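Below is a filled-in request sheet from our internal design queue. Each sheet records the structural input a requester submitted and the sequence that came back. We keep these sheets so that new team members can see what a complete request looks like end to end.

REQUESTER: design group, bay 2
PRIORITY: normal
MODE: inverse folding
CHAIN LENGTH: 150
BACKBONE (tokenized):
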């Protein structure tokens, strides 16, 4: 595994904004990189944590990130892992696994009994990682509603 430090983002600095804007297109080419206001809102939200994988020996120290989303439901605490991305130059070095392990530990601290995530089928390496880490493929119907005026 690459020598990385996993930590929670606590402030939307210019450097962090630039790095997040660099990584988001690697996750989804259609997604608009976040604005400063959006990143501020994410980092200050009580319902989410932006977890960062940092490599101090790299010219681009932010080599990966994920969002841990959480909210209370009547049956407990729901936790989702969202937007997992590792920089193309750092893939295959164990950074994604380190991020997900840190997220699972944090979810346990938050009282979650399960952690959910989704991954597109074409993200083969990511799907192999999740299965290897103990995630189970669920049989469910996933629905999405699109607001047509956006």
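RETURNED SEQUENCE:
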């Amino acid at each position: 595994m690459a020598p990385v430090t996993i930590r929670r983002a606590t402030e939307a600095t210019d450097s962090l904004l630039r790095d997040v804007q660099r990584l988001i297109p690697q996750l989804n080419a259609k997604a608009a990189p976040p604005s400063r206001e959006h990143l501020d809102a994410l980092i200050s939200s009580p319902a989410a944590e932006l977890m960062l994988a940092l490599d101090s020996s790299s010219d681009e120290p932010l080599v990966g990130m994920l969002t841990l989303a959480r909210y209370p439901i009547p049956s407990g605490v729901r936790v989702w892992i969202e937007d997992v991305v590792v920089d193309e130059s750092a893939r295959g070095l164990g950074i994604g696994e380190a991020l997900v392990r840190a997220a699972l530990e944090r979810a346990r601290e938050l009282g979650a009994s399960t952690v959910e995530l989704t991954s597109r089928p074409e993200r083969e390496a990511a799907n192999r990682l999740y299965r290897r880490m103990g995630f189970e493929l669920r049989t469910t119907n996933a629905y999405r509603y699109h607001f047509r005026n956006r």
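SHEET NOTES:
- Strands lie at 5-8, 48-54, 62-73, 76-86, 116-117.
- Helices lie at 14-27, 36-44, 95-109, 124-132.
FILED BY: M.R.
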